[in-house]
Amino acid sequence: PQLRHFPSNVGCGCVPRPHGKSFAHRSELKQAKRIVVKLGSAVVTRDECGLALGRLASIVEQVAVLQNQGREMMIVTSGAVAFGKQRLRHEILLSQSVRQALHSGQNQLKDMFQSWRQEHAQLLDRAYMFDCSRQIKHCHTLHELLRMNIVPIINTNDAVVPPPVPNSDLQGVNVISIKDNDSLAARLAVEMKADLLIALSDVEGLYDSPPGTDDAKLIDIFYPGDQQSITYGTKSRVGLGGMEAKVKAALWALQGGTSVVIANGTHPKVTGHVITDIVEGKKVGTFFSEVKPAGPTVEQQTEMARHAGRTLASLLPEQRGEIICCLAELLTEKKEEILSANKRDMELAIPMINRLSLSTAKLNSLAIGLRQLAVSSRDSVGRVLRRTRVANNLELEQITVPIGVLLVIFESRPDCLPQVSALAIASGNALLLKGGKEAANTNKILHQLTQEALSIHGVADAIQLVSTREEVEDLCRLDKLIDLIIPRGSSKLVRDIQRAAKGIPVLGHSEGVCHVYVDSEASIDKAIDVDSKCDYPAACNAMETLLIHRDLLRTPIFDQIIDMLRTEHVKIHAGPRFASYLTFSPSEVKSLRTEYGDLECCIEVVDSMQDAVDHIHKYGSSHTDVIVTENEETAEQFLQQVDSACVFWNSSSRFADGYRFGLGAEVGISTARIHARGPVGLEGLLTTKWVLRGEGHTVSDFSEQGSMKYLHENIPVPQGSFS
Questions:
Q1: What's the confidence (pLDDT) of residue 408?
Q2: 626 has which bridge partners?
Q3: SS in 3 state form for 459-472?
Q4: What SS3 string covers 400-448?
Q5: pLDDT of residue 135
Q6: Contacts of 450 by beta carbon, 8 Å cutoff, 6+ apart
Q7: I need a surface site. Which of 168, 319, 470, 596 has the fewest CB within 10 A?
Q8: What is the DSSP string of 602-644?
Q9: 10-residue block means of pLDDT along the chain (723 residues)?
Q10: What contacts 559, CB < 8 A, 6 or more positions away?
Q11: Where is the Aspartate/glutamate/uridylate kinase domain (predicted)?
């Protein structure tokens, strides 16, 4: 190829590191400078159809992107040869040109790299594996190519040079057998002092037993010495190595100082970003590490929590109440230890000191709330909601049960930990907690106290604190382990989690754009009450937009509203219509969907109550909206028409809170349309199951020729009835 020099190290911030020690954690893979990508035959070929052009194009794109970031990329592939053999097998039958088959895959790669204006060079020499002098020349050539920002593609030319042992597989019908390149990729990575080897195959990674078997589990991190716990299955239909060969090669490379990830390069949903995701440290495939953490993995923590959570759910309500009361006692008894840990956190996180801070008064308040929850939650799990007599001696019940395993992600509010833990205990749910690192010391002591309380009934593992380097996005992918995600934090955190969640429902709201509409028949005293904005401006239930009926403009009510906002130092932004009424208006709002979270708000003018409703539906976030009026008919129409989680009349929006609603503690406020909506307390952490009790009934008993008939009679359920 034409050799051109490009400046290296452009933009990615990665620098060459001393070779000899592999990365200990996935998050460190972002530092990888020199990367080898090994493409298995199953990745770049399709059964009986030649090259997988779409996958190849995606891989080339990702390699080019990483190369342009200043990394040094190398590709090891048998794909061109695999396709050559695939074509060669047909040529034996159809007498086609062998030369045409040989060059087909190589030319496709050439065209794809040229489309990205990325120079590359293909090296095909099987002697590299056996001749030391050729190895030295190869390495020198590769170093020169990398120096010139050229992507080397290394490929053993098995289609031309016969292997040491004659192969008869060209006579086969469905099997395409090629030389295994796993050991070649590992050897190349170590000799070239690569930081990372990415081995792409047709499986998600390394499993503890053959993929497809009932109990097979994908291994997130594999450590040397874990080989005895693995049962290998059969190899891929294309390629000779199989997973056992990949593992041996990976461990050899790891020992040589190169980190390794084995991942799926064929899945249509992930192929487009699998390489870049791995380099970004995302949980993809199996990561080989020499550093084994002291504690369990997050997957193991989740399984431990689920197992203990089922025991927790089977306890008597009084026993769950005892655990909560014990936690309340520990919060006050161990307050010195808690406050000492909290002080250490605050010294390291000055900008967040208000949200992070705990005090004796706050701990006492938490303890009081927990005791109240212990009493009020005794009729939660196992409560009969409905009872039906389906037929004689066939009765059906719908009862409340825990959701399962909850993942709560919270930022810099350590008081959230005991609150959410108590709600999980009361509802019989297992709980996985991921707190912000700024509160690590406080969260650690609070979690220890929570487990101490749980241990009085042998369920300490039901609540787990994730203290490993798990990224939030990786946690959101554990759809087989986690049943519900509850984010507690900024709107950005919630939005990020909603985007990242893969098959797991998210309970919460990303924005709190709350409105207060002042009607033309509003009371002046109620209209000038600025509690909705000024009580706690950063809260999600604080007013962000004040809607004023146009008839109130240039009236004493309007003047007093403006004066009151100015007295409270609220910065006013004018909506488009409001600005049109003024000669000198405040700064015009950039967006009517803004959540200020501070002493700022937007004022906009509307023509009527219906106009206010339409505005709320267009620009609101379905959180909390308020009408201020003395006209009951207008108020009732507003309450009925506004489609938000909370709709109030002559009341502050700040009442949208689980404690103020009498729910005890809350896990958050939801704007979702299904399951829980509004402030979510204990009831929102429960679902239901159906229990049917019969005496050998069969469906055929109710056929036309059967002896039984459906009754479907509702059976009254006494208050406090349990199954």
A1: 94
A2: 516, 648
A3: CHHHEEECCCCCCH
A4: EEECCEEEEEECCCCCHHHHHHHHHHHHCCEEEEEECHHHHHHHHHHHH
A5: 64
A6: 327, 417, 418, 421, 463
A7: 168
A8: EEEEESSHHHHHHHHHHH--SSEEEEE-S-HHHHHHHHHH--S
A9: 34 48 90 93 72 83 91 80 45 39 51 61 56 68 85 65 40 38 85 93 87 82 77 54 80 91 85 89 91 82 95 95 97 96 86 78 92 88 95 96 95 89 96 92 97 97 86 84 90 85 85 95 92 91 96 93 95 94 83 93 97 97 96 97 96 91 82 86 93 94 92 90 71
A10: none
A11: 33-264
Residue 56's identity, in one-letter code, is L
Q: How many residues does the chain have?
A: 723
H/E element, 364: helix 360-376
Give the torsion through C-alpha atoms of 538, 540, 546, 549, to 10 deg. Answer: -160
N-to-C CA span, the chain: 76
C-alpha–C-alpha distance, residues 398 and 182, integer Å: 55
Look at residue 2 in the predicted model and tell me its pLDDT: 33
Among candidate residues 459, 465, 481, the one with its CA nearest the CA of residue 310: 459
The encoded tokens of residue 391 equal: 């037929």
User: Residue 240: helix, strand or coil by DSSP?
Assistant: coil
Distance CA 482, CA 407 (A): 7
SS (H, E, C) 67-95: HHCCCEEEEEECHHHHHHHHHHHHHHHHC
Q: Which residues contact 547 (CB under 8 A, 6 or more apart)?
A: 515, 516, 517, 518, 604, 605, 606, 612, 615, 616
Please name the residues in contact with 25: beta carbons below 8 A apart, sequence gap of 6 or more: 281, 289, 291, 469
H and E: helices and strands count for the chain: 23, 26
**How far apart are alpha carbons 371 and 354 in whole angstroms?**
25
Distance of CA 37 to the CA centre of its chain: 26
Q: What does the alpha-carbon distance between residue 650 and residue 642 come to, in Å, rounded to a whole number? A: 15
Rounded CA-CA distance 548/559 in Å is 12
**Helix, strand, coil % (nearest 5) of the chain?**
40, 20, 40
Rounded Cα gap, residues 500 and 518, in angstroms: 39
The Cα–Cα gap between 184 and 253 comes to 10
Distance of CA 186 to the CA centre of its chain: 32
Distance (Å, whole) CA 588 – CA 329? 52
> 571-574 and 484-488 as β-strands: parallel, antiparallel, unpaired?
unpaired
Strand 196-201 versus strand 34-39 pairing type: parallel
Pairing of strands 405-410, 484-488: parallel
- Token pair listed for 690: 């159906």
How many whole angstroms separate alpha carbon 199 and alpha carbon 277?
A: 14
The whole-angstrom separation of Cα 633 and Cα 627 is: 12
As a whole number of Å, the CA-based R_g of the chain is 32
> What whole-number distance in Å separates Cα of residue 600 and Cα of residue 615?
19
Residue 401: which residues within 8 A CB-CB, separation 6 or more? Answer: 313, 381, 382, 428, 686, 687, 688, 689
* Spatial separation of the C-alpha atoms in residues 192 and 190, rounded to whole Å: 5
**Cα 603 from Cα 546, distance rounded (Å):** 5
Nearest residue to 568 via CA among 533, 616, 541: 533
User: By C-alpha distance, which of 477, 475, 473, 474 is closest to 464?
Assistant: 475
Sheet holding 196-201, edge to edge: 120-124, 151-155, 72-77, 34-39, 196-201, 259-264, 286-288, 221-222
Give me the pLDDT at residue 182, please: 84
The encoded tokens of residue 482 equal 């986690």
Longest dimension (CA), the chain: 99
Q: Is the dihedral of CA 119, 123, 128, 131 positive or negative?
A: negative
Cβ atoms within 10 Å, residue 264 = 19
Neighbouring C-beta atoms of residue 13, cutoff 10 Å: 9
Tokens found for residue 472? 């939030």
Pairing state of beta strands 384-391 and 713-714? antiparallel
Spacing of C-alpha 325 from chain mean position:
33
